[in-house]
Amino acid sequence: MAAIEYSKLKVLIVEDESYTRQIIRNLLYQLGVRSIAEAPNGRDGLLELIRVRPDVVLCDVHMKPISGLELLKQLRTVKIPEIAATPVVMLTADSSKDTVMFARELAVNGYLVKPIGLSQLKARIDAAVSDRSLK
Q1: pTM, to two decimals
Q2: Per-residue pLDDT of the chain (135 residues; tens, 9 = 90+)
Q3: Residue 105: which domain range?
Q4: Residue 62's CATH number
Q5: By C-alpha distance, which of 90, 12, 110 is closest to 54?
Q6: Is residue 2 assigned to a domain?
Q7: Which of 44, 61, 73, 128 would bridge 39 by S-S if both were Cys, CB 3.0 to 4.6 A apart?
């Protein structure tokens, strides 16, 4: 498998807490990611997703007016296949079995429970982006 060129990766962070977005952004910078878009909720996240067409989305679960799970559900039904297949990694404090199972049913590409570390984030991004290149 070819190494991922993080400097060419486009990442969208969908997170309602600005402090958490900043932490995730800093971790992504450490990996070498330079193209980072952000949205403060699922509704804005969907709009950014269609505008930016990121290689991977890092998304919180619990947000209003649209949750991360609802964003994932709507994304998977988009009529443009390459957008609908965008890899999504959930970053959340919610580790409940029901939430994880629901995310899996919606074809989530990864699930990380906060707080997250650099190596965990890198592993999930690598897996999500690698999955996409196989499709």
Answers
A1: 0.94
A2: 467 899 999 999 999 999 999 999 999 999 999 999 999 999 999 999 999 999 999 999 999 999 999 999 999 999 999 999 999 999 999 989 999 999 999 999 999 999 899 999 999 999 999 855 533
A3: 8-134
A4: 3.40.50.2300
A5: 12
A6: no
A7: 44
